[in-house]
Amino acid sequence: MSLNLEKYQALATLLELLRADATTTGLDASALRQRLTSVQQLFRQEIVPLTNEDSRVQSYRTEISKQLRLLEIDVMFFQGARQASTAQARLQTISDRLTTLIQYCNAIMQQQAEGEK
Q: In the CATH scheme, what architecture does the domain 3-116 have?
């Protein structure tokens, strides 16, 4: 497995953990924010510096960056939710966005695995 593939796998794993947290009832908003920060750090430190990727992977990476910024806003809205129904709706939005991010990581990993053949 290539080093790039391992980095995207690590990102996907963190995203899946974050999604599992977001679907847990009684979730602490600060814990969710903390997990998000670790995901963003991994993305910035390990994935952004990657240079030997084709244009399709770079497009996915750009989309991941955008979705992570939107996810940060979603988490802020969740933190500000005052009613249980609003908080639940925000968690659903967060979960949906995380699913999208995981799909992007999987698409990149699949493409890179095919490129290694």
A: Up-down Bundle (1.20)
Q: What is the pLDDT of residues 42-67, one digit of tens each?
A: 999 999 998 777 888 899 999 999 99
Cβ 2 vs Cβ 99: under 8 Å: no
Q: What HEC string does 25-72 produce?
A: CCCCHHHHHHHHHHHHHHHHHHHCCCCCCCHHHHHHHHHHHHHHHHHH
For residues 112 and 7, the answer to whether their CB atoms sit within 8 Å is no
Q: Domain-by-domain residue ranges, the chain?
A: 3-116
Q: How far apart are CA 27 and CA 60, in angstroms?
A: 30
